Backbone:
């Protein structure tokens, strides 16, 4: 953590004009009053919007064909912290997550407008290769998806193997051990690295996918409901891992589990939609403690209290 | 309680079981019929062809001195033409299947490509034969000369190239075009079954489209590709008309040369072209050749199943 106290006038404005102001003034204009003080007990360092891996989303809209799925989202994502996207189904939080690393446009006819920048670099600028974006902004999916034809070891190295850059034996072993240790999986699989990747349990597979994602050295790890297919014990393991990962990576997680968002995230962004078929919008965002204890918008409070719909 | 149960099972259940009996009976009958037909063909081939295995000179077509001398070169020719055709068809089949599934700019284009392939499969074999004879063969001659000049040191291209173009290479290209649709269809099916989660996994690791195909689509589809190849090989082995029309054959020749004017014949083409002028024991010899082809096709089919199974397990 290089910058413990962000300087709103100099450093932050280099990255995105008014970065801090924007972070506390999302689309609805309901700003949390407190600054960047950590909200939850698990947070060990102050949030920083100019730490490495900070992202800035401004005026982003996502389309499927002519259908507007997400409208006008502006949001600051602090570097090396956990940001949670919550909201009802269909509110566009997964779509927005996929727009962050340009996975969104893998679907034919899907596109996004607006600006999403990582460390001040616009990922949607002309000439930016989406393939390069995805190797800087990794992704973990709802269902664990290791490559079934690859061993556990090769799954960790998959990002390099795919690119034809399989490291030499000793470097490969070292990288595999480092990533699996980082993903809290090494002790469980170190004796069976040659077994196929899908021979593991669901929770282990998900941690394998996390090891695979961090092996290509991304700055950001996006997680799309990473625990929704897992049992509570595996979920706990992934939650601990997400907190741990936030020491080195920017973590953005979509979750339907509000207790989980409250436990693990530093910043929470609440999305919702007026009615079915309407585009999803960012309703409120801020330090997780504030969002859960003193939401500014009634819709947020209703959703958190379970009174949605 | 007992009464009501009887009433329930006695009414509609009785009718249903009648219908079920008819249905399952006819299904069983069909299954048995297929097995009986296969056995019947085998019995026919063995009974009519069996005597030919001991035949000597004079009883066999093509002036063969014994059955092995007749069958071996023809069996070689069948396998050789089929394998070369498979080599030509494999990459285009995979390519077309990828174009129709992964690379298609729209679902409509994919369907269009599929329809074109199905049309290709509907073209009669005689038409391909005519095309091969009249169009492809003359067009191939300059290529043969070039191959001979540049790669003449390879056994495949040594010796004087054919001036008519009616060679193993030409016949193989024609057969390749004919087996392309079935192979492409098999590949297309297995590509379309790639789990979307794996495609996403590859893209999320920063894979380009081709890198995604290599890491997510092809490994999973491997058994489907092999199965398609074996189906294509089986078809190529049995292909008769087009080969009989295109190939300028010397039935007792074993040669790997693919551009010469002297070419081995294939079993199917040999039977088709010799049958009209055959009588007596020579007909038996042709039927025995049919039995040999049957055996080869069976081996290919078994091998294909084995490989496909292994691929599915890996």
Residues:
């Amino acid at each position: 953590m290089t910058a413990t106290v962000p300087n709103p006038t100099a450093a932050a404005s280099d990255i995105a004009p008014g970065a801090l102001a924007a972070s506390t003034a999302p689309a609805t204009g309901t700003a949390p009053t407190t600054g960047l003080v950590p909200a939850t007990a698990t947070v060990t360092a102050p949030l920083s919007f100019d730490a490495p891996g900070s992202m800035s989303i401004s005026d982003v809209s996502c389309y499927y064909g002519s259908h507007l799925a997400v409208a006008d989202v502006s949001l600051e994502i602090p570097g090396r912290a956990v940001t949670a996207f919550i909201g009802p189904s269909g509110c566009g939080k997964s779509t927005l997550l996929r727009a962050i690393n340009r996975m969104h446009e893998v679907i034919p006819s899907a596109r996004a407008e607006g600006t999403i920048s990582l460390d001040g670099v616009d990922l949607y600028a002309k000439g930016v290769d989406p393939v390069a974006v995805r190797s800087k902004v990794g992704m973990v999916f709802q269902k664990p998806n290791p490559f079934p034809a690859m061993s556990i070891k090769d799954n960790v190295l998959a990002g390099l193997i795919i690119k034809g850059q399989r490291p030499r034996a000793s470097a490969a072993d070292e990288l595999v051990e480092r990533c699996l240790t980082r993903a809290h999986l090494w002790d469980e699989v170190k004796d069976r690295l040659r077994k196929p990747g899908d021979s593991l349990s669901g929770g282990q597979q998900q941690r394998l996918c996390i090891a695979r994602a961090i092996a290509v050295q991304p700055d950001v790890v996006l997680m799309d409901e990473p625990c929704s297919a897992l049992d509570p014990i595996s979920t706990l393991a992934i939650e601990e891992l997400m907190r741990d990962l936030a020491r080195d990576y920017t973590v953005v997680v979509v979750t339907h589990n509000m207790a989980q968002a409250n436990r693990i995230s530093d910043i929470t962004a609440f999305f919702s939609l007026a009615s079915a078929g309407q585009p999803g919008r960012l309703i409120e965002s801020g330090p997780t403690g504030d969002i859960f204890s003193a939401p500014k918008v009634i819709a947020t409070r209703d959703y958190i209290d379970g009174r949605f719909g | 309680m007992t009464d009501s149960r009887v009433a329930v099972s006695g009414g509609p259940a009785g009718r249903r079981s009648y219908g079920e009996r008819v249905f399952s009976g006819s299904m069983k009958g069909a299954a048995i019929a297929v097995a009986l037909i296969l056995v019947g063909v085998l019995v026919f081939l063995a009974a009519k062809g069996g005597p030919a295995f001991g035949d000597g000179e004079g009883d066999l077509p093509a002036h063969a001195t014994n059955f092995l001398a007749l069958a071996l070169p023809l069996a070689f020719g069948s396998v050789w033409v089929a394998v070369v055709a498979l080599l030509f068809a494999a990459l285009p089949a995979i390519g077309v299947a990828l174009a129709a599934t992964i690379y298609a700019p729209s679902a409509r284009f994919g369907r269009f490509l599929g329809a074109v392939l199905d049309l290709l499969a509907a073209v009669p074999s005689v038409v391909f034969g005519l095309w091969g004879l009249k169009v492809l063969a003359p067009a191939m001659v300059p290529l043969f000369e070039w191959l001979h000049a540049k790669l003449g040191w390879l056994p495949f291209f040594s010796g004087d190239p054919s001036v008519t173009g009616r060679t193993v290479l030409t016949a193989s290209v024609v057969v390749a075009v004919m087996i392309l649709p079935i192979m492409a269809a098999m590949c297309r099916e297995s590509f379309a079954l790639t789990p979307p989660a794996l495609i996403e996994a590859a893209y999320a690791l920063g894979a380009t489209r081709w890198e995604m195909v290599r890491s997510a689509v092809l490994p999973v589809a491997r058994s489907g590709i092999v199965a398609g190849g074996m189906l294509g090989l089986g078809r190529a082995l049995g292909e008769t008309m087009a080969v009989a029309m295109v190939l300028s054959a010397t039935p007792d020749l074993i040669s790997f040369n693919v551009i010469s004017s002297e070419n081995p014949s294939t079993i199917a083409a040999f039977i088709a072209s010799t049958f009209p002028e055959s009588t007596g024991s020579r007909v038996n010899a042709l039927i025995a050749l049919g039995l040999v082809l049957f055996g080869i096709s069976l081996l290919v089919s078994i091998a294909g199943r084995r490989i496909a199974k292994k691929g599915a397990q890996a």
User: Anything to note?
Assistant: Chain A touches chain B through 27 residues (CB under 8 Å).
